[in-house]
Structures are given as structure tokens and as C-alpha cells.
Design a protein that fits this description.
By secondary structure, the protein is an all-alpha fold. It is built from twelve helices and no strands.
């Protein structure tokens, strides 16, 4: 989600990109579902630490195989510094917050709230990026997106059949995740444009693993006594596709098609998560969740459409 950091041309969505958009959304959506399923067997921090460890090992392997064909191992110290900051604050912190939040609310509600991230990013960009000012359409999109989140919060929606009133801790954790992720997008726009996405993505995952696994090990330990085969599958899937596979599908979408194509999964992920949650995790879709989801999606659509119009005018 947070790996698209260089300047790319925004072009109309190609029909050839749709399968990859759906694949990216499926990876992101199933990642949320597997994360909530795994919480019955893992401490949240153990699950996050283990998945980043596996993803980091996969990143090293992929870099060894593919990196040599493209270039040597990156030695730019500034790249390592920026990508490491981006990995720890842009990936580890948001992911940890969301996984902890899944103890209090459904994966569907969490995914809908996470979808507000582009709206907050646009709002922050207005104040911290000189070329990203708000206009009327963007402002309306931001208001609609935040209104959708407010609907969910005020109604106390959990999406859980056995919990009627939300614990505010769940909402707070997701909002922290969204805020930190949005700040890191501003950081990336200011300091990381022009760097190769392949390098940034791999360094991001590797540095995240180096940071979170020791922290996990020395705080909550590595208790896997409750983990069965389903839990192992959930962990491996989350590490490979949800943590690392998403990076490369997004990389391919940007490189082969456009940033617009890479952003389209934002519309599909909550739908996949909501349906999957109902079918496999005994979650619920209420009228309040649907109302909040529609407001957020319309708001993000307005923001994306405005950005596409601006880029077209510039070209």
C-alpha cells in the first residue's frame, strides 16, 4: 500500500491492468482476513514479527535472484536511511496497529476505516507539500471520506455478531495507523522520489524485519504452542502475499500501467474483506457499515478523479 513513492505518469485505467488490480486487492483483502483469523492462535505482536521475518527472508532471496540482473546491491546510505524509516513507520507501525485493532472489531470495519488513508494524505499534503493544494473537489472528497468514518464511529459499529458496542480502542488503533501511514506518504513524496521502487520495497521489508522481530522476541516472546496448521498457513500467506507479494504486484502495476491503476485496489479491498468476513469469520455487514463505506469510497473517488484531471491538464 505504501510502496509507490516515485513520480509516475497517471493514465486512464487499461482493461489489461484489471486482473492485476483484482490480484492486488485479493492479496490485501485476504491479508486482513488471515490476520484476524490468526489472532486466535498468535499474540498480535508475535504474528506481526513473524510475518515480517518471513517477508524479510523472502526479500533477501528475491533480491539475490532478481537484483543481480538489474543492478548491484544498493549502497546509497541515504536510500537505506529513508527506506528504513519508511519501512518501520510506514509499514510496521500501521500494520501492528491494525492487527491489534482486529481484536476489537471485524476485518470489514477495519478495512473500511483504513480506506480513509488517501483522504488524510491529501489533507496533510495541502499543508506540507507546496504543489498539493486542496481544491473544491478534493475538499469535498476529504469531507465525505471522513464523514463515512464518523458514521461508523458514532454508531459504534464492530461488524462482530457477538459484540454489540465497539471498544473505542479498536477505532483509535486504526486511526493511529492511518495517520502514521499518511505522514509517511508525505515523507516519501518529499524525500524519496526518484529512487527505484524495487530497491525501496526490498529495503523497506528487510529493515522492517530487522526492527520488529527482535522487539517482538524480547517483549512477548515466541510462543507458538497454540498454533495449528491453519495458523501456519495464515502466517505464511500473510508474509508472502499480504506483506511481500503486494509490493511486487503494485510495482508491476506502476511500471507496466500507471499509479492510477495501482490505486484502484482501494475500491475493491473493503468489498473482498466484507464478503470474506461474512463467509469465513462470522462477521456482519450492517446498514451503518454500508453507509460509511459508500461515503468513504465516493470521497476517495472524488480525490482520485481530481488528481487524474490535474495530471492530464499538466501533460
Amino acid at each position: 500500500m505504501l510502496n509507490y513513492v516515485h513520480s509516475v505518469e497517471v493514465t486512464p485505467l487499461s482493461s489489461r491492468s484489471i486482473p492485476f488490480v483484482v490480484l492486488q486487492a485479493a492479496f490485501l483483502g485476504s491479508n486482513m482476513l488471515f490476520s484476524r483469523y490468526a489472532l486466535a492462535q498468535y499474540h498480535p505482536l508475535t504474528f506481526v514479527g513473524m510475518r515480517f521475518l518471513l517477508a524479510g527472508l523472502l526479500a533477501l532471496s528475491v533480491y539475490a535472484l532478481l537484483g543481480r540482473r538489474r543492478q548491484t546491491w544498493p549502497k546509497d546510505r541515504r536510500l537505506w536511511l529513508y527506506a528504513s524509516i519508511f519501512g518501520i513507520l510506514g509499514s510496521v507501525v500501521p500494520m501492528t496497529m491494525v492487527v491489534f485493532a482486529l481484536q476489537y472489531q471485524s476485518s470489514g470495519v477495519s478495512s473500511v476505516l483504513v480506506t480513509t488513508c488517501p483522504a488524510l494524505t491529501v489533507l496533510l499534503a495541502h499543508f506540507f507539500l507546496p504543489d498539493e493544494s486542496l481544491n473544491r473537489s478534493k475538499s469535498l472528497g476529504v469531507v465525505l471520506a471522513f464523514s463515512g468514518a464518523l458514521v461508523l464511529t458514532l454508531r459504534g459499529e464492530t461488524g462482530l455478531a457477538d459484540v454489540t458496542q465497539a471498544n473505542p480502542i479498536g477505532y483509535a488503533l486504526v486511526f493511529i495507523a492511518v495517520f502514521v501511514a499518511s505522514c509517511m506518504m508525505i515523507f516519501a513524496r518529499r524525500y524519496m522520489q526518484g529512487y527505484d521502487i524495487f530497491d525501496v520495497s526490498n529495503i523497506q521489508v528487510i529493515s522492517s524485519a530487522i526492527f520488529i522481530f527482535p522487539l517482538m522476541f524480547f517483549t512477548v516472546g515466541l510462543d507458538l504452542s497454540q498454533v495449528n496448521m491453519g495458523g501456519v498457513i495464515a502466517l505464511v500467506f500473510a508474509a508472502t502475499t499480504g506483506t511481500y507479494g503486494v509490493v511486487f504486484v503494485g510495482y508491476y502495476l506502476i511500471d507496466r500501467f500507471s499509479a492510477t491503476a495501482a490505486s484502484m485496489s482501494s475500491y475493491v479491498v473493503p468489498i473482498i474483506v466484507a464478503i470474506g468476513g461474512v463467509l469465513f469469520l462470522d462477521e456482519q455487514i450492517t446498514a451503518g457499515i454500508m453507509a460509511g463505506f459508500i461515503c468513504i469510497i465516493v470521497g476517495i473517488w472524488l480525490i482520485n478523479e481530481t488528481n487524474a484531471d490535474i495530471d492530464s491538464a499538466v501533460k
